[in-house]
Design a protein that fits this description.
Blueprint (H helix, E strand, L loop, with lengths): L11 E11 L4 H11 L9 E6 L5 E10 H14 L2 H9 L1 H4 L6 E5 L1 H4 L12 E7 L1 H7 L5 H15 L3
Antiparallel strand pairs: 1-3, 1-5, 2-3, 4-5
């Protein structure tokens, strides 16, 4: 089994998109903007869950799964589109974006996405989780901790995605 040249041994099993849409926002505009900006051509239909906000307002949560090959393309699209400052922030705080299982969690600015721009965000925005194939990393691991290897693989991936 040969590692993928694009992402090395860091392979994604899939990704999950999670969007919160408030009553004052246009669901169709947001979903269309997310799909077109991130260049997602064949997504599974967004699943919808409706909640009631603190003041009785309607809140809609939209989720969709992107399969393996789509996740590989999606991470490259996001990383290649980030500004220098966003990439620096991501690299400087990378451990905050990686969970205990080695998955990468990114939050993107929903309002900027409606203007066809990709920026990291600290607010709810558009959340994307990338699930990795940890077995592949273990298979190619020579020494040291797997978690450290995952961290360095993500760093290498971010650095490789220059505009």
């Amino acid at each position: 089994m040969k590692p993928n040249n694009q992402t090395g041994i860091l392979q994604f099993l899939g990704s999950f998109i999670d969007i919160v849409v408030h009553a004052t926002e246009d669901k169709q505009r947001i979903t269309n903007s997310v799909l077109s900006t991130l260049e997602i051509s064949h997504p599974n239909k967004f699943e919808e869950i409706e909640y009631e906000g603190h003041w009785g307002n309607k809140i809609l949560r939209l989720t969709a799964e992107i399969k393996k090959n789509g996740a590989q393309s999606l991470i490259r699209k996001i990383l290649e589109s980030l500004s220098f400052m966003d990439k620096k922030n991501l690299l400087d705080n990378l451990e905050k974006y990686i969970d205990a299982k080695g998955n990468l969690h990114l939050r993107l600015d929903k309002q900027k996405m409606c203007k066809n721009k990709i920026f990291l965000s600290d607010t709810e925005g558009v959340k994307i989780k990338f699930r990795i194939n940890k077995n592949r990393i273990i298979l190619y691991k020579k020494r040291g901790k797997v978690d450290d290897e995952i961290y360095f693989l993500y760093r290498r991936l971010v650095l490789s995605c220059e505009k």
